[in-house]
Give the backbone structure.
Amino acid sequence: ILPTLFDGRSNHAREVLADVGERYDLPVLEPPIPKTVRFAEAPAVGRSILATARSSKGAQAYRDVATSLLARL
């Protein structure tokens, strides 16, 4: 499971994230991809978040998930 649009400010969101992998017996990839306005802006210019806002939290989270997946291979 790759959690996206994650808003970790609420207790409920953190609890759901902690529960979902266990409930469905599936691995949860980390870090969760945070909700950010940069994701809405990227398609407006026809580019990915990695091309439009390389240093944003969302772009960094995707790079971190990719790095963790490569390490598992």
